[in-house]
Specification:
Chain lengths: ~160, ~270
């Protein structure tokens, strides 16, 4: 069965006729050509496919595109402001929070969601607990945790500065 | 995944009529179990009827000494609810420990209990707290709702609409998660009701799903302390035994988790 799916993807309205069984991650990557969102395990465990749907981090390999019809979807491509990286992206670069980079889009989308939910100034224990749905096979996580901590501290500073 | 037809239901009645006209339909909650199962081609419903956007199935409310949770309420919403953190702290801990943050944003209480995975967390809370499951057809006591591994009393077209939990005097949950899947290897929910009745329910360990431990309940009724359950072990006869742990290992975990849960309940 084919159906028309329409959503806001990184602020732009997109629409396509897809099979009902199409996963959101395939809609994003194949139908819309945004390949920043990765498929790692395809079994809902690794978190490489994490995107935000209506402001919440979800695994886009474990959701149908049809379930996101009418939703607001944010992928890693939608984070930067023009040439200026999002603070979490900048912190991953600064702290060497990646090696091969495959898990990075999911790590970054999970990190942004975690900072939004807990408020800035996260502690290391919370960051490690919150990362349990994201697997990295290169870094041993230390620099990822450092990057998220640095971004959260920096975003707390930015928030104070604007208040 | 085999082909399927997706329907989004606007109301419970709407969903029931979609199910009636489907050849081999399945209700879709958050999809965190059903979609992975379909991707592995272990399930192939002809129709998926999405319940997630039905407004009546959402929300958490407190009235008359009970907390009522709509079936489409996500684990993240339960874990962060102020009402649940104050009235049912054990349930907030439980919901906050299911899967991972992304799974908790999609997975729902109704979907979890309708699936009744023997390693799922919620069944232990419903049984220990003496919850009532409301459907579009009737009300069922938790102990009558869960009937066996992946089995419930639900009819094929029946929809869980909410779960009502009597507010206990004390409650806590402790689980030993499988380090990879986060499913319970053994999870124990302890509750002391407003009338001082004690219930201890175990998930993750039993071959037939959730079960109560009468001996621990009696011991805790006269002495609410971790020491009261420390010497009580469950028989490993009907426990799960798999690559992750033997029945004897799980039996030991049940005692350890029960001690931790009682300590956490205070």
């Amino acid at each position: 069965m084919m159906s028309k799916v329409t959503m806001r993807l990184n602020g732009k309205t997109v629409s396509a006729d897809v099979e009902d069984r199409t996963l959101l991650v395939h809609f994003i990557r194949e139908t819309q050509g945004l390949t920043g969102t990765h498929v790692g395990c395809d079994t809902s465990q690794c978190g490489a496919c994490v995107v935000h749907v209506d402001g919440k981090a979800v695994k886009s390999c474990t959701m149908l595109a049809a379930q996101a019809d009418g939703s607001d979807v944010l992928t890693v491509e939608g984070l930067a402001n023009g040439d200026e990286l999002h603070p979490v992206q900048a912190a991953f670069r600064e702290n060497h929070g990646l090696q091969c980079g495959f898990c990075t889009p999911g790590m970054i989308m999970t990190a942004v969601d975690m900072i939004e939910r807990h408020g800035a100034k996260l502690d290391e224990k919370t960051i490690r607990h919150e990362l349990e749905g994201n697997i990295c096979r290169c870094t041993g996580y230390h620099n990822i945790v450092k990057a998220i901590k640095a971004a959260s501290d920096q975003m707390a500073g930015m928030k104070t500065a604007t208040e | 995944m085999y082909e399927t037809t997706y329907h989004r239901a606007g109301s419970v009645a709407d969903a029931a009529s979609m199910m009636a006209s489907a050849e081999d339909g399945k209700y879709l909650g958050g999809g965190q179990t059903l979609l992975p199962t379909m991707k592995q081609r272990l399930a192939a419903p002809t129709d998926l009827i999405d319940l997630a956007k039905i407004v009546d199935l959402h929300g958490i409310s407190e009235a008359g000494g009970a907390v009522v949770i709509g079936a489409a309420t996500t684990h993240a919403e339960v874990a962060s609810s102020a009402v649940i953190n104050s009235k049912l702290p054990g349930l907030a801990t439980l919901a906050g420990g299911i899967g991972d943050p992304a799974v908790r944003h999609k997975g729902t209480i109704g979907g979890s209990i309708a699936n009744n995975d023997p390693a799922a967390d919620y069944p232990s809370a419903l049984v220990a707290l003496g919850a009532t499951v409301k459907t579009n057809k009737r009300e069922l006591a938790a102990e009558d709702f869960f009937t066996g591994m992946f089995e419930t009393a639900l009819e094929d077209d029946e929809i869980v609409t909410s779960v009502s939990f009597p507010v206990p005097a004390k409650s806590a949950y402790s689980k030993y998660p499988n380090p990879a899947s986060r499913y319970a290897m053994a999870g124990v929910f302890v509750a002391k009701g407003a009338d001082d009745s004690v219930k201890v329910a175990v998930t993750g360990a039993g071959q037939d799903g959730v079960f109560r431990v009468g001996e621990m309940e009696s011991a805790l009724s006269s002495n609410w302390s971790p020491e009261a359950v420390a010497g009580i072990s469950v028989s490993s006869d009907n426990l799960l035994s798999d690559i992750h742990g033997s029945a004897a290992y799980r039996a030991n975990l049940v005692t350890v988790m029960a001690k931790r849960a009682v300590a956490a309940a205070g």
